[in-house]
Each structure stands twice: as C-alpha cells, then as structure tokens.
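Hi support team,

I submitted a single chain yesterday and got back a structure, but I'm not sure I'm reading the token output correctly. Could someone confirm the output below corresponds to the sequence I sent? I've pasted both exactly as they appear in my results page.

Thanks,
R.
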Amino acid sequence: MKKSAENLSFPLKEKSVAMLAPSFVVDFSYPNIISQLKGLGFDKVVELTFGAKMINREYHKILEHSKELVISSVCPGIVETIKSKYPQYRKNLIPIDSPMIAMAKICRKIYPKHKVIFISPCNFKKIEAENSDYVDYTIDYKELKNLLKKHKKKKNNSETFDKFYNDYTKIYPLAGGLYKTAHLKNILKDDEAMVIDGIDRVMEFLDNPDPKIKFLDVNFCKGGCIGGPCINSKLPLILKKKKVLHYLKLAEKEKIPEESKGIIKEAKGISFKSDYLNK
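Hi R., thanks for writing in. Yes, this is the structure output for that exact sequence:
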C-alpha cells in the first residue's frame, strides 16, 4: 500500500500532523504518547474526537428524517463487507464520512502545509485511507509500538493535544459509542436502534433483519475498535473498555487551553459527505 508506514522515514522531515484514534489508550499511555509522537518528528498531534463530534451532528440530521433502515458507516470493515457480500444494503449505509476522514478534512483546512497521518488500530482503515485524498499515510498500533522502541524519547507528561479537543466522544471506539454520543434518544425509540459488534452477529442481522429497527450502530470487531486486529494489548475486552472509560473520566477533569478545544466554526465550509461508499 502506498500510504503505509513502510513508505515513511523517521524522524519525519516534512511537517506532519498525527491523528490519533481514541482507542490508543488501550496500548499507549496518555499524555506520554503525545511527546513520543513529537519525538518521531510529528509537528502536531490531534485526536479524532472532534471529527467524531462533527459526524454525530450529520447522523442526527439524517436520522431525524429517515423512515427506513440506516446503517452506520464509520467502520470500514462494515462498509467493505456490505459492498462485497450484501450489496442490497449499500443504499442503507449513511453517506457520511468516518471520523478519520472528517478529521483529515479539518486538518487539511487548519494545517494546509502538513502531511496527514492516521494512527490506527485497524487494517480496514488502511483500505479506507488508500481510497481517500485526505489521508497521506496510516500507521497501525503494532507499527507504532516498534517505531517508539526504535526512536526513544524522554517522556513529557505536560503536553496536550495541539487542537480540536472533545471529551465525550472518547468512548467512540467502544461498541455503541456512536449511538451513546449522537444524542439520538430524542428521535429514536429504544426498540428502533440496535448496537451490534462482531461481523458474525452483524451478518446474522443482515440475513434476517428486524423490520422495527431504523438504525444500526455496527462494528466489524467484537467490542468495537478496542478489539481491532492491530491492537497490541492482550487484555480481555472488559479491561480494554475500562481503560477507555478511565480516559474519559480523566478528560472530564482535564484543564484544556481554549485554543486547543474543538470549535464547530473551525469546520465551517467542509462537506462531510462520503465518497468512500461509492469506490
């Protein structure tokens, strides 16, 4: 793949922004990971949480007016499965970017001279990135672990993300994280939405859909992104989930500079309509 880590040279020489998926806390410690990424040559480090917030807003608009089944498209493993095995459901996929692509578009606007590099728990994200004009490279968590061993840097616990901070969407990598954070309960009844994690269970539903369901929040991996194939940790899912929830609690207490917060107007003028679904 042209956009894989093997095509990068470290420390990075070009100005680059690292986009961290919030599942990173399963494998790496916060805030140490920020200074470690800076040690690899990244000029900026941001998290996908603001991109997730913007995608939630788009989902809310669509689900307010939807009368038939719609399926979340934030997981490229789900998108690829539907494209190849369930083409009849392709029209049901929500035609909105994933948080990765949304955040990449925002970074392109704010940091136009930077390369955009995504740090990923998932191989499917590499496929999605290959089909995107907004992500330059992807580095998975296993590759990142090896890079950090090779390029050690003294840890600095005082660094925070450079920009686009958002706290409540830090649970996005958990199964049901989208549904819990998109404020959908005022437009969907409890029995009209279903959260399914694990591709076998997703396929079972698609083979025998429940006509009452209007929204599927689905993940290819069990547990959501914390069960991604590129995660190093061998902890059981329940303990991985605990790490994410602990991170959320920490974030709620953290004092973040105003200039680092995600402000909606910074995404003004950006279309989050997905091209990936048609590729």
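A quick pointer for reading it: The CA atoms of residues 110 and 266 lie 8 Å apart. Let us know if anything else looks off.

Best,
Support desk
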